Amino acid sequence: MKSLEKTRRTRTIGTYAFFIIGSIIMIFPFVWMFLTSFKTVAESMQIPPDILPHQWNLNNFKEAMASLPFGALYKNTILLIFWRVVCAVGFSSMAGYAFAKLNFKGKNILFSIVLIQMMLPSQIFITPQYQMLAKLGLTNTVFALVFPGLVSAFGTFFLRQAYLGIPDEISEAAHLDGCNQWQTFTKVMVPLTTSSMAALAIFTAVFAYGDLMWPLIVNTDLKMMTLSSGLATLRGQFSTNFPVMMAGSLMAMIPMVVLYMIFQRQFIEGVATTGGK
Amino acid sequence: MANTKTSMASKHAREESMWGYIMVAPTIIGLIVLNLYPFLNTLVLSFSKTKPFGLYELRGIQNYVKMFQSPEFWRANWNTIYFCILTVPIGIFLALAVAVMLNAKIKGRTAFRAIFFLPMVVAPAAVAMVWKWMFNTEYGIINTLLAHKVNWVTDPNVIMITCAIIAIWSAIGYDAVLLLAGLQNISKSYYEAASLDGATKWQQFRMITLPMVSPTLFVVLIMRLMSSIKVYDLIYMMVEESNPALTSAQSLMYLFYRESFVTGNRGFGSAVVIWTVALIGLVTVVQFWGQKKWVNYEV
Fold it and tell me: The whole model's pTM is what?
């Protein structure tokens, strides 16, 4: 019995060791980013490096802000996320509900369009999507950023699953109480899928925020870029000035990381339930 | 009486189908304009030659012939496959290890889970920046710790390993969270019965955990493979046009981006995407065929 207790203790210690080493590997890059962003270029190139900056000065942040219009980048990114989330959740709720609960002719054929889109990688649509916007003269706008995400096949599929899980009796009861189809949907069914909608919203937001190829292609004007694509141009400007790049990266990542710290559980559970894509 | 009832029912059915069409309309119209039409358009483009002012001319299989003759294209294929080989097995193995550990009853597991998941909420552009700095040959912290000057970013033989390390680091928490959800579905009674029968932890892992989590493992594997074949942003951020290691790191999607939007050769670029989609389809089919051998759906 004593030896059993002992192996259990060694196992717990082993697990903790694994997690502590793992956590250091996961967090260190961000710590290093933070520390470097306060160093001067000369300090950052010092060998062997000092861990802490000699002086906590904000020059790198000033320089990053001077070469990138951070205000505009934040604004564009927030608008991009906002519209993508609103469109994905709104339209997908409607379509998901209809596909799950309503009967109409051609339903299966229409749903197969959703499935086909889900199976194809987004890059296959990019060139024609860009050409459409270019023809309409709509490049370098917020609309262009949102454009490929106006509707969401994945969202439709995901919310359809959520609605399939709700028993039919509930909508029948709403109907007997005199609700019409639209009222049944908005007043009774939508509130029942809040957690799924939240998961989809978080998933859509994280994806829109990290997306790089589309914003790079469609908005080439610095003032219309997102944080991600703006950061990519900073890379070209300061190829050897790492402290400025770290300051820029830090500013780009902070808002999402703060949100993540507050809504950590919802973020992770959102991903676990959407199953990713 | 019976008559009014049927007419009520048919009115109800008509109303229901009307609402059905109204509610799917935005999504379906959107998908047709944003996806179905562009998909067919890309297919046409891949058989066309790009001309000035956004015009095209059908040219048959010329783009594909040119593509199959291009060493750069074959190199991109190899780079992509090499990236998958480097990232997928090790990444999934580590993610499974993290998930198993997170499934143990220890204090602070939510905190550890949150830490491993952190890279998911940081834009890949920012992630690439800090790793590029740490992997810097002269002043990077990694070479300082190794006391050795490895050209992590500019050596054609090393660059893919560098990218693979970053990719694994970025995805591990995400995959672990998905696998953890699978692990938590396994009933405790299996383990209790097994330990009463005197099975060791390792035997329990092999005989219970692995078969029971295999459907989730399969989903994660498919997802990871698909996204690794489509790898773009990480490599784009790590390797700029002037990097001597560019041809050794250029993935298929990077080649597509450069051909379509830097060189302006959209026909060729479209052929590359069509090829990549076919490759993803092939890999997926092989996976679904292969799963019969190792995925266990009987519970």
Answer: 0.90
